[in-house]
Amino acid sequence: MSAAVELKIGGLDGTLRALDALPESVRNHAISRAVKIAGEPILAGMVNRCPVRYGILRNSLTAFAKKLRDGVTFVCRIGAQSKIFVEIDTISRGPRKGQVFGEVPTRIIKLVEFGTSKREATPFMRPALEAQAQNAVGAFQAEMENQIDIAVEKVAFRGTT
Amino acid sequence: MSIESDLCSLLKTSSALVAVVGARLFADTMLENGVFPALVYKEITSGLEIAHGGATGLRPFTYQFDAYATTRADAVAARDAINALMKSLAPVTVGATAFQGANFRQQMTNYERETRLFRAIVEWEINIQT
Q1: A117: nearest Cα among B33, B117, B122, B80
Q2: Are strands B58-69 and B38-46 parallel, antiparallel or unpaired?
Q3: Per the structure, how many domains does chain B have?
Q4: What is the ipTM metric for this complex?
Q5: Which residue of B has its CA nearest to A122?
Q6: What is the model's pTM?
């Protein structure tokens, strides 16, 4: 279990076969773009369900596509942005007066999603994935067809110049 | 009787689980009585299975089970008891709920530094006939 969900799509044989005719760089760009678009409905579902106190978690939610090391698998990771510290406010009194306090979204996302012994779990990622998985596949297929059209035009243009 | 209370009754039928956590089964969140091991179960998602002919009457519920204990062995033992119970779940009616079976989703373990508790989490999708 990680603090991000990953979307993997398969079974769109007709669409995916059309990609084989394209150069690798064009193909990778098209798939990467479509995979990212596929994550958008899930991301929107997460943003809608995300509990809000300061808004740190909700504002840090993001989706990005990446190609795995095997060279053939693309995944869309949807979760909190890593390596960021969000300032909430400054401490107004006591020995630490004036110091900034804040949170790291990747830390709190796990605590919110899975809960702790002291705090009830508030799942928002898993319900969003479950509810939007079918929409994600639809978005992927639509964007893939769009990207193939763009890619074919690009290749044809390059061929004429 | 609600599905949650019937699920609690179902969990209590597992002698392996009761041997580890006793009667300390909590829905959603734990009571702060500080006695461990304890098990918390929480509904994550629920749906309605739709086929070409319409609703099948089957409702999949995803539940997260958290076993908390002061030793890792106890937390894992409670989780294993849940896994054994769910894996062998045949169609059975408990209270007003007709359990049809369960599918494993995922599991993990971690350690809470603040409370010094070991935690074993497992997620199961439980199918219920309505």
Answers
A1: B117
A2: antiparallel
A3: 1
A4: 0.85
A5: B44
A6: 0.81
